[in-house]
């Protein structure tokens, strides 16, 4: 894996060489609660003072500072709670507010630096150049005022760097929480996929969710929560446009748009239904009841007579159909024998008979 400065700065798990970043977030948020809470109380107390004690610009500056410190106080509470319970949204909010507070402090430090340098310039001119005559004393006075500005710059730089490092610590902890959640999610997905390979109940994927409402294919075992009813009619719809159903037609009926047959089909064989069977039985019973009554032969119509003749059954089976074609007559041969001839006594027998 190539070296990355971003990973080196924001991807670590410790700070100050060995301390865990979670401890740093907890400690920094606790300190922020105390410091920001105290500063917000002081600033709002100063704002509530009589209007004659400060100008309009000063009051506006105190109001803005009070709002900033109050927001930092609330964000520190979120960071403290989020670092304990590993709440990603709380830690992320705390990190964003810390970076915003850092940039605001840069602007405030620059403005205060300008004020301090301007004060040093005026103090040097009034207190050193115009008041002190000795050159050595003037140099000492200028050096003292110069040290004051230098001390402010050093303190402001340390505070800003400390706040930036604290924001980096929070970012490291946020990245760690995100990586940990991502790894746990991948582990759950992998375990679910492994378990589904040895289970009759497949995963709840969008593949089945999309096809369940548009396809008439029965899902694998265990997909449906309700009990299977063999007498329930299955709604038919247009075939799914999913690639699986477009290529694999193993379980798909080729005529999906044909309306389903009645539920009674299959009882009695063929295409007989309960309704057909009941109507046939009723007609047979009515016919039997009508035939059981004594009816005169003269009252019967020709169609009824023909029907009754056709219903006469022979023990030799149904009569065969008459053939229309005439069979060719075969020659008949008759064997004839001559009568025996008797020779009178005293005459010789003929050689040929």
Automatic annotation (TrEMBL):
Keyword check for Transmembrane helix, yes or no.
Answer: yes
Q: Where is the composition biased (Basic and acidic residues)?
A: 245-258, 302-312
Disordered: annotated span: 232-275, 288-353
**Domain of life, per lineage:** Eukaryota
Membrane-crossing residue ranges in chain numbering: 21-45, 60-84, 96-117, 152-175
Q: Which UniProt keywords apply?
A: Membrane, Transmembrane, Transmembrane helix
* Protein name per Swiss-Prot or TrEMBL: Uncharacterized protein
Source organism per UniProt: Candolleomyces eurysporus
């Amino acid at each position: 894996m190539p070296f990355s400065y971003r990973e080196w700065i924001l991807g670590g798990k410790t700070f100050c060489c060995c301390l865990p970043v979670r401890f740093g977030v907890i400690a920094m948020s606790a300190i922020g609660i105390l410091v920001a809470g105290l500063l917000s109380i002081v600033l709002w107390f100063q704002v509530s003072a009589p209007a004659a004690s400060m100008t309009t610009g000063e009051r506006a500056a105190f109001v803005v500072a009070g709002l900033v410190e109050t927001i930092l106080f609330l964000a520190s509470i979120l960071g403290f709670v989020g670092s304990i319970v590993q709440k990603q949204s709380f830690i992320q909010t705390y990190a964003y507010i810390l970076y915003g507070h850092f940039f605001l402090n840069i602007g405030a430090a620059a403005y205060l630096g300008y004020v301090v340098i301007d004060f040093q310039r005026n103090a040097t001119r009034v207190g050193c150049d115009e008041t002190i005559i000795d050159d050595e004393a003037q140099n000492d006075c200028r050096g003292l005022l110069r040290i004051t500005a230098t001390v402010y710059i050093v303190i402001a730089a340390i505070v800003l760097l400390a706040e930036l490092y604290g924001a980096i610590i929070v970012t490291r902890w946020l990245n760690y929480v995100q990586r940990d959640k991502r790894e746990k999610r991948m582990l759950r997905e992998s375990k679910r996929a492994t378990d589904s390979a040895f289970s009759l109940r497949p995963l709840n994927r969008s593949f089945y969710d999309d096809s369940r409402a548009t396809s008439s294919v029965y899902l694998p075992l265990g997909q449906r929560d309700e009990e299977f009813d063999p007498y329930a009619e299955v709604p038919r719809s247009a075939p799914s446009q999913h690639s699986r159903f477009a290529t694999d037609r193993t379980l798909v009926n080729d005529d999906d748009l044909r309306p389903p047959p009645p539920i009674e089909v299959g009882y009695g064989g063929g295409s007989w239904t309960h309704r057909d069977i009941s109507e046939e039985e009723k007609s047979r019973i009515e016919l039997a009841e009508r035939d059981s009554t004594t009816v005169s032969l003269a009252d019967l119509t020709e169609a009824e007579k023909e029907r009754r003749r056709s219903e006469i059954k022979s023990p030799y089976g149904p009569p065969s159909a008459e053939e229309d074609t005439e069979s060719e007559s075969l020659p008949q041969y008759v064997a004839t024998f001559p009568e025996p001839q008797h020779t009178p006594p005293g005459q010789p027998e003929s050689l040929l008979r």
